[in-house]
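Friendly challenge for the regulars: who can give me the structure tokens for this chain first? No prize, just bragging rights.
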Amino acid sequence: MTSLFRKIRRCEGSEISASTTNDGQLKVFQVSTHSIQGRRPHQEDRFFCINLKAHPCFGSSIFQQSCRRLNLFVVCDGHAGSKCSTFIVDNIVSTFWEIVLELGKSIAVPVVEMANLMKEILSRLPVQLDDAYLHRARTTKERDGSCFLASVLLDDRLYTTNVGDCRLVLVNKAGKSRQVTHDHRPGLSKEEDCRILASGALIEGSKGVEKRVCAKGLRMAISRALGDRLLKPNIISSVPDVFQSDLTDVRFVCLMSDGVTCRVSNTKFGTILRGADPGFLRLNHGEKVNFAKSLVDHAFAKGSMDNITACVLYLG
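First reply, four minutes later:
Bragging rights claimed.
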């Protein structure tokens, strides 16, 4: 595979990269990213994208032998500061590799087993990142936390791990959207609410008012996150949901912080993205379009008060 895809990690700004391949069995994709501080006093969002097959650690790994493409996309929505979200993007590749070594996987495996392996890695990834950050935070007394969304594109299959309320939405070729992840917020799931209450925390908020997890003098809009040492290990959980997505009919893969989704409903994504490049004519002639910026700009124009971050894959 010839790849122009490279590492990206910025607090603000945008980037467009492409992954090309000589193998007609793999879809070609373009990735665009955009992140702004918006109306918040500080930028606490972070994002990270990398071609893992080109990373030195993975040069002789199981993935070189068992897959043709392995790309990682991450969006983090920090709160109470940016230390936790920054820690995640600085340490995610090394943590990913540590888990591979812990699982003892060093030889090629069948495709079916590769899918199970990826799910196991993504189940462990946020928990181990959280443990490592909390180890530091207990010494430094940091109180920062972060929602965490990561997707791995393994050949033409997408695997996602989610903690918090960053969101993965897929848009098909007809422009219809499907939310893949579940927001971890109080009041959305009876099971999650029961877990929060069993931890000794309270859920406050009446009908029509956004609910909060309340404990130890703190009020949290989310029920799962990395960091937040004062509410660990039971009140704010770092245990993720893990998803596998079929990309057969998918045109766009959208990873977003809630700075986007608080102002853009799932049903609007297809309209916004298709409107950014009507008929996809510019793409067909080789001109790159920053679809992520279209989502971020739309959310800002609609009054989003948060940091706003999006990472969008356009699948050719």
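The chain has a mean pLDDT of 88. The chain is about 30% helix and 30% strand. Your move, everyone else.
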